Amino acid sequence: MSHHISIDKMVNRVHYIGRVMKKDKEYFKKIGLNKKSDQCREYHKKILRLMYILNKLNGNQHVRTSELCKEFNVDVRTVQRDLNLLQDAGFPLVPVEKGIWAFVEGFSLRKMMLTNEEASLLTFFHEIADSLGKNFSESFRSLANKLLSRDDDSPFYIKMPATQAHMKNFPFVKELEKAIDECQKILLTYEADNGNEVFKLSPVKLINFEGFWYLLAMPEGKSAFWKFRSEKIKGLELLDENFDPPRDLKTILDRSVNIWFNADPGEKIVLEIDKDAAHYFKKKIYFPEQRIMKETKDGTLIVESRANFNEVLRTIIHWIPDIRVIKPKELDTKIQGIVTAYLKGSKPRWGKDRE
Q1: According to the per-residue pLDDT averaged within each range, which of 51-55, 159-163, 243-247, 350-354 is highest?
Q2: What is the CATH number of domain 267-343?
Q3: DSSP secondary structure code for residue 111 in this structure
Q4: Does 81 or 290 have the greater pLDDT score?
Q5: What's the CATH number of domain 168-246, 3.40.190.10, 2.40.30.10, 3.40.50.720, 2.30.30.520?
Q6: This prediction's pTM
């Protein structure tokens, strides 16, 4: 017997879930909400924000995080969570440039036979599915995947980054949120190469790069930022000590392009990009403070950046042979050493996320 579910039936289920959510008091009891509670009102606001964002995106418009903050009187972190939620739910949302987002070119909710309301409900239930029990969670995610993956009908195929790193799997997330919000120091037990280690830290952010979650923190007595991978956090103790958060944190995060950033912006780096790869560097920011300084007659680019070596090493090696380091010489030498070690069959030395 076929278990194929039509698009119409899927959409009807979404509508039904929405009606239940609005009318059924038992639903709210089941997930621990009162219809008049602050949490319930926050969920309602979230759905309205998602509908607004989807409406703009579906009209071939970009959305700016700064404008969304003003529109809904929320902070950047709230808006970023909404955008991340849309991505996690399967919508192909991509950064056009820093702080500006859009659907992947050619994507439309209309081609999926979804209204903005239905899409926002899908996104919302993607977030709360686990709280409704395992059976509901599995059924809903299966429905959403089918609805968002209509490869047979669509001329477009969009490959989104695959990752198993979901916020719900971040250990001690509630305690860490509290410590960050209240500027409270912590003792963190962390799985290191030689067994578990304990660190006294000032936690400043929970960050996500390329689909993986990290705790960003400052070690006791140091001004550098260390990053701790979520899956390696084994224990946490909140301390009765407070710290002053770094004033320049937002600036540091805004200029970052990968997990290898730090408080020190590093030094000037000059790169030569071959004409065959030049159009990629015109369209996308690969390096911190990336600027095109010159374009030669044959299409070669001279690109300038300011970064630590760890921030650029992997990207440069990824683009070999279409990229060359002009300066500093130390960076070029380090890359040559990594490539030489690889060719000889030995393990290259990269660097650590804790410096």
Answers
A1: 243-247
A2: 3.30.70
A3: G
A4: 290
A5: 2.30.30.520
A6: 0.58
